[in-house]
Amino acid sequence: MIETVSTARSHGGVQGVYTHASKTCQCGMTFAVFTPETNGGGPYPVLWFLSGLTCTHANVMEKGEYRKAASEHGIIIVCPDTSPRGADVHDVPDDWQIGGGAGFYLDATEAPWAPHYAMASYVMRDLPAVIQSEFPADMERQSIFGHSMGGHGALALALKSPDRFKSCSAFAPIVSPTSAEWSRKAFAAYLGGNEAAWRAYDTVALIEDGKRFREFLVDQGSADGFLESGLKPWLLEEACAGAGIPLTLRMQEGYDHSYFFISTFMAEHIAWHAERLKG
Q1: Active site residue: 57, 73, 152, 257, which one?
Q2: Which of 5, 79, 172, 249 could form a disulfide with 17 if both were Cys (CB 3.0 to 4.6 A apart)?
Q3: DSSP state of 83
Q4: Is 224 a catalytic residue?
Q5: Count of CB atoms within 10 A of residue 14's CB?
Q6: What is the SS3 assignment for 8?
Q7: Are the C-beta atoms of residues 254 and 221 closer than 8 Å to each other?
Q8: What structural domains does the chain harbor?
C-alpha cells in the first residue's frame, strides 16, 4: 500500500511522489516515480536512479532533467531516498557522511544502525515489489544508474545482480568506498571493523573478487573537487581492464560534481539505457 504525496503532469506523463511502510528499513520511506503516460499504456521498462550523499528523492527529481528523455523512450524512472528517516531512526545530524542521507546502499550489520539501514535490500527487494504492484512496470526490463554515492550503489548492485539489470551507468561514482575519505567512516560504523566485510559493497573490490557485468558507462567531471580524494575513476578503469569488463569512461572537461553536470548528460544516459532495455 502506498500513499500519494503529490503528482504533476510533465512531458505527457506523471511525476509522482509517494510514501510507504518499508519492511526492510522498518520505517516510512519516500520515493519518486515518473511514469511516461497515464492513458493505460505500458508496461514500461524501469530505470532506477540512486542519488548521492545528503540527497533525498527530490534532488534529481527537481534538478536532474530526466522526464523529457524518459517520456520519449517510454521508461519509468524510480528515485528512492538515500537512507531511512524518522524519529526512531538513528542519525548523526551534524555529520553529512553518516546517517540520514548517507545510507551507502548497503545493509548495516552493526548497532545502532542495523535495524533501519538496509538500503541494499530496500532497493533490491522492498521497493521493487511496490513498483511492480502499483505501477505499469515491466520488471523483466530493469536498468540502474546513479550519482556519487548512488553511482557506487548502482555499480555494486549491478555487479552482484548481473541477470537483473540490463545496463548500468554512473555519474562521478565513488568506485572504491573502502579507500575513499568520505565513506570509510560510514562503512566502519555500518559494517564493523572487519574491512574484509566491506568488500561486498566496493565496486573495485567486487571486480577483483570475481564479480562481472556486461559493460559500464561512466561520466566524470574533470573539475570535480572530489576527484582525487573520493572518486578515483582510474581505479575503476584499472579494475575493468584487468577483468575484461568494457568500460566507457568519459572525462568531461570543466564539469564539477553538481546537478549542472548531471543534467547535462542525463538524456545521453537515458538513451544509452533505452537501447539496452529494448525487447
Answers
A1: 257
A2: 5
A3: S
A4: yes
A5: 16
A6: strand
A7: yes
A8: 2-277 (3.40.50.1820)
Q: What is the pLDDT of residues 250-270, one digit of tens each?
A: 999 999 999 999 999 999 999
Has residue 38 got a pLDDT over 70?
A: no
The residue annotated as part of the active site, out of 22, 83, 143, 148, is 148
Question: What is the Cβ-side half-sphere exposure of residue 124, based on CA atoms within 13 angstroms?
Answer: 19
Q: What's the predicted TM-score (pTM) here? A: 0.97
Q: What would the grid cell of residue 80 be?
A: 528512492
147 belongs to the catalytic site: no
Q: Which amino acid is at 141?
A: R
Contact at 8 Å (CB) between 242 and 194?
no
Element holding 58 (H helix, E strand): helix 58-63
pLDDT of residue 279: 65
Beta-bridged to residue 31, according to DSSP, are: 18, 80
E strands, 24-69, are 27-35, 44-50
CB < 8 Å & 24+ apart, contacts of 92-98: 96/53, 96/54, 97/53, 97/182, 97/183, 97/185, 97/186, 98/185, 98/186, 98/189
Q: Measuring CA to CA, which residue among 64, 43, 76, 36 is closest to residue 267? A: 64
Question: What are the CA-CA distances from residue 230 to residues 18, 143, 213, 246, 257 (Å)?
Answer: 32, 25, 23, 23, 11
How far, in Å, CA of 115 to CA of 228, rounded? 34
196: which 3 cell numbers? 574484509
Q: Of the listed 107, 224, 269, 273, which one is catalytic?
A: 224
| pLDDT tens string 93-116 | 999 999 999 999 999 999 999 999
